[in-house]
Design brief:
Chain lengths: ~140, ~140
């Protein structure tokens, strides 16, 4: 199903400096995806992609992930309406992580708690402090059904 | 060795909305760390932390990671001089990822290839295109020895 080049057949230099997209999926078949908002450059969330999720993302321009908890492909926004339109995808040096620059549609909330970003708490000594990120939707309302 | 609160003893609401730092380390004892430059908001790199690396990062203010390839704690910059001073640490909703806002010291290169960011290639169809990120140091020179 994966149409990606096999990373194990590349030299170190080809992997890191070459022009072949050869994602290094881990033992669970996943790469890590960092999701950043294109305009603000805020980091919205961290997610995981299997080969199919990455392929669907590149083909459709809408972010798809692999849900480790539900064990299935997940189109971001399929329940909440908060679809992520992909502006640019980058890979890191050893191709085991991707960086998505996205336009966060809907109410602008990437997080299932209704906030723009999942990173709404700041580590403060041994505790966490709320950064004051407002809720853009009520999760009890959105995930009803 | 870990002094962090045990995430498994928290309710879902406490984990996601509470003020206790309770990192959810995975089966390998790791959380994922996204590293973002404080001024530019550029994503510099992705790394992993075990409990000790997170503790050292919070205690010293210098980013420490767990090297999966070398199987040891790694103070960022210990070989290259490219130390990362931590400005802020955030956790995500389910506390299995952290976001570090850092000042990238040294020549400003977070990547072992000598570039500022590890994400120097853009996915372009089935291929990768160089974003034109300049090398700030020569890795052959820096990692000699």
């Amino acid at each position: 199903m994966s149409t990606f080049f096999d990373a194990t057949s590349l030299t170190h230099a080809e992997l890191e400096e070459g022009t072949l997209l050869a994602p290094r999926f881990d033992a669970l078949g996943l790469v890590t995806a960092i999701v950043q908002e294109a305009g603000s450059l805020r980091v919205l969330m961290l997610a995981h992609m299997n080969a199919e999720a990455l392929k669907l993302t590149l083909e459709t321009g809408d972010a798809h992930y692999w849900s480790r908890s539900r064990g299935k492909i997940w189109k971001k926004g399929e329940s909440s309406g908060e679809v992520q339109r992909v502006v640019e995808v980058r890979v890191d040096c050893d191709q085991d992580a991707v960086l998505l620059l996205v336009e966060q549609t809907g109410r602008g909330a990437a997080c299932h708690t209704g906030r723009k970003s999942c990173f709404y708490r700041i580590v403060d000594g041994a505790a966490l402090r709320d950064s004051g990120e407002p809720r853009l939707f009520d999760p009890a309302e959105v995930y009803r059904s």
